[in-house]
Automatic annotation (TrEMBL):
<protein>
    <submittedName>
        <fullName>Transcriptional regulator, contains XRE-family HTH domain</fullName>
    </submittedName>
</protein>
<dbReference type="InterPro" id="IPR001387">
    <property type="entry name" value="Cro/C1-type_HTH"/>
</dbReference>
<dbReference type="InterPro" id="IPR011990">
    <property type="entry name" value="TPR-like_helical_dom_sf"/>
</dbReference>
<feature type="repeat" description="TPR">
    <location>
        <begin position="157"/>
        <end position="190"/>
    </location>
</feature>
<dbReference type="InterPro" id="IPR041315">
    <property type="entry name" value="PlcR_TPR"/>
</dbReference>
<dbReference type="Pfam" id="PF18768">
    <property type="entry name" value="RNPP_C"/>
</dbReference>
<keyword id="KW-0802">TPR repeat</keyword>
<feature type="domain" description="HTH cro/C1-type">
    <location>
        <begin position="10"/>
        <end position="63"/>
    </location>
</feature>
<dbReference type="GO" id="GO:0003677">
    <property type="term" value="F:DNA binding"/>
</dbReference>
<dbReference type="InterPro" id="IPR010982">
    <property type="entry name" value="Lambda_DNA-bd_dom_sf"/>
</dbReference>
<dbReference type="Pfam" id="PF01381">
    <property type="entry name" value="HTH_3"/>
</dbReference>
<dbReference type="InterPro" id="IPR053163">
    <property type="entry name" value="HTH-type_regulator_Rgg"/>
</dbReference>
<dbReference type="InterPro" id="IPR019734">
    <property type="entry name" value="TPR_rpt"/>
</dbReference>
Length: 297
């Protein structure tokens, strides 16, 4: 990749976050070096580029075309492994890896330690009854500074979503609402869209919290936002679940016909995706709501 192209990306991202060259360079390199990189007059070392990227909330691969991006190193592969285990609810396996890597010098950097503590708190929350301890550990992870305060990373958003999940699971819905709404605001400010599934889950979980707080109108609105987001991403991930949840919210709002229509859409999505277990669950509830709607006519 030509230095000028790399420099343009660096400058665009820096200006997007309104970070000065001096702020970006602090404790990494000189302000003059940043200026030269942006003008394409010099190529930064991989280490300096990585640090500049992290301060602006992106990985080094952001500055390269896909075919030029470096292969995942040990750290990234380990993070991916932990993410995969947590997403599959294999918390015991994940926490064993986390315990080992917290001793690993490769994970001493703030950004890596923040990630490990985040995932450790999620595992602790799900493996024990020490819910408050898990929440406190997650807040410790949240307070670790890894980049400029003006920038946002996918991990920052993920931590807020996890806090929302923990408060929701402990029925502290007002606190959950705060962290979910903050995560939604942060996601809209991301200049580089990362992994989408956490954002899908954000809309899904946020709509449920509004429902728990008996704010059916807002629950429907958030479900619609999630559905539109999924369509924009040309995906089906959580689409059936959102249609089903929207149907429930509408039913309790008194809009029974529209509610049943959304549940039918959910059935169609689950059938298309071959998710028989979800299909049968929604079908049973759909028939129940259908009977209830007839009885109240």
């Amino acid at each position: 990749m030509e230095g000028s192209s790399l420099g343009i990306k660096l400058k665009d991202l820096r200006e997007y976050y309104n970070v000065s060259q001096r702020e970006l360079a602090k404790n990494i390199c000189s302000q003059k070096a940043v200026s030269k990189i942006e003008r394409g007059e010099t190529q930064p070392t991989a280490d300096i580029l990585q640090q500049l990227g992290l301060r602006l909330g992106v990985d080094i691969s952001y500055f390269f075309e896909e075919q030029e991006a470096p292969r995942f190193n040990y750290i990234q592969e380990t993070k991916d492994k932990i993410e995969d285990l947590v997403s599959k609810w294999k918390y015991k396996e994940a926490v064993e890896i986390i315990k080992e890597e917290l001793k690993n010098p490769l994970f001493r950097k703030a950004t890596h330690r923040k990630f490990l503590l985040w995932k450790k708190s999620v595992c602790h929350f799900n493996l024990t009854q020490e819910k408050e301890d898990a929440i406190e550990l997650l807040k410790v992870a949240m307070d670790i500074e890894t980049h400029s305060k003006k920038t946002i990373t996918n991990d920052d958003i993920g931590i807020y979503i996890s806090l929302g999940n923990m408060y929701s699971d402990t029925q502290k819905y007002e606190q959950a609402l705060y962290y979910y709404e903050q995560a939604k605001k942060m996601a809209k400010k991301l200049p580089v869209h990362g992994s989408a599934p956490p954002i899908y889950k954000l809309y899904y979980n946020l709509s449920i919290v509004y429902f728990r707080l008996h704010n059916f109108e807002e629950a429907v609105k958030v479900a619609d936002e999630g559905i539109n987001f999924i369509f924009k991403k040309d995906s089906l991930y959580l689409l059936g679940e959102l249609y089903y949840q929207k149907g429930i919210y509408l039913f309790y709002s008194g809009k029974k016909r529209e509610a049943l229509q959304n549940m039918k859409k959910a059935l169609f999505v689950f059938e298309e995706k071959g998710q028989d277990r979800f299909y049968k669950f929604v079908e049973t509830n759909y028939l129940g709501f259908q009977r209830a709607a007839r009885d109240n006519v």
